Amino acid sequence: MIAILINEDALCLQCIENMINQDQKIKKLIKLNDELENYFRNTIIPQLFVDRNLILRKFTPPAMKQFSLKTDDVGKNIDDIKDNFRFPTIVENIVQVINCNEILEKEIQTTDSRWYQMNIIPYVITKTKKTNGVIITFVEITARIKDLVNQEMLIADHETLLDTISHDIKGPLTSLILTINQLKKVSTDKSKAFLLLFGILETSIKKMQILITELTDAGKLKHKYKVEEELIDFENILEDVRLTLAGTIMESSAIIETDIKVSQVLYSRRKLRSIVYNLVNNAIKFHSPDCAPEIMISTKKEKKYVVISVKDNGIGIAESKHKEVFSKYARVGNTVEGSGIGLYLVNEIVTNSGGKILIKSELGKGSEFKIYLTAQ
The pTM is what? Predict the structure, then answer.
């Protein structure tokens, strides 16, 4: 009887001890939850927590404000609210991180034209070592992107200037040298003063030729050893162009639609941006006066190429001028201001990298430019 009582007392003590331990664990969890909630309330970084079933479980107040999220969005599939992020591949990127268990970093633009560095980090359960979801953070980089855009535009202007100097000034200077030599031969005046004057003129022109050669060679050498190719997200390039042309797009009421089947392209960021910028800018510039510009931009894989297509509903180009538009200073029409160098530069960039550009266009029926970049 005594033994039974002792056992019962021992069991009661054990129960009390378990209850105390459980209570301590609950208090600890409550404290951790309070700390986590406090972190959520006070963080300035937009963050999303998405489980492995792609259900949005939690987000910070800055995320609510930045991406127009509502409390009711908690519990929804991320696919239902992906349009808030203006980044069409966000769902497949989350799936990729869950499956591969590797951090993914990308630059994206939100609906208010701000740029963010997006990091998708796998949330791994310690015991099972399995990814149970992801944490997505967004760090604003709008100012840096705008600086890069301005820098790229300056580089493009610099390269255009060098190209103009190389092609358009070297030729006339060479002609001047030849003309001076001919004048010296046919002139009847062989006086010392005459020959001295022509000598000074000839020397000055030759010095100009040397100076121009050094200038253009230095410009080329600057980029000679620079590794330019990188794995680029095409959507980022497209949003970069949208940002640059924001005023033009708004003024013309242009509608830009996309069909992106290939998201990542191995190419020079600056050159790919220049290609897309010039094609989209032309599509808006040469729109029909009877309707707003409608532009369809698509990408796809075709044999050994990544094909970028820019199709518009503009004034179109006569078939007889299809080759001419890629010539330097060629103009589609005289009603729109421009240098006529945009398509020339696009053609130079594409063909020099082993690709090709095709045009399909009729007068009054719009144009489609297809850029073929070698896939790697």
Answer: 0.51
